[in-house]
């Protein structure tokens, strides 16, 4: 298990476990994220490789 980030104070989270940083339901697409430029759509190739 990794240690929590000391710069993030989880005790101050008003809604622990809730992704309240997400866009509201029905929100439009962020114009700064252009998914049409993704060379591998649907593949999480930005993720860290699994440990074998």
List the defining traits of the structure above.
0% strand, 52 residues
Write a concise synopsis of the structure shown.
Helix content is 0%, strand content 0%.
Supply Rg.
16 Å
The strand count comes to 0
Average pLDDT metric: 79
Biggest sheet descriptor: none
The number of helical elements comes to 0
The rounded distance between the terminal residues' Cα atoms is 17 Å
Which quaternary structure do these chains form?
Answer: single chain
The low-pLDDT segments are none
What does the overall shape look like? flat
Q: What structural class is derived from the secondary structure elements?
A: little secondary structure
The share of residues in extended strands comes to under 5%
Share of helix, binned: under 10%
Compile the SSE list and pairings.
Layout: no helix or strand
Describe the structure.
The chain is largely without helices or strands and 52 residues long. 0% of the residues lie in helices and 0% in strands. It has no helix or strand. The mean pLDDT is 79.
């Amino acid at each position: 298990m990794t240690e929590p980030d000391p710069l993030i104070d989880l005790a101050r989270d008003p809604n622990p476990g809730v992704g309240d940083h997400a866009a509201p339901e029905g929100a439009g697409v962020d114009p700064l994220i252009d998914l049409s430029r993704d060379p591998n759509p649907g593949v999480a190739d930005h993720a860290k490789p699994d440990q074998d």
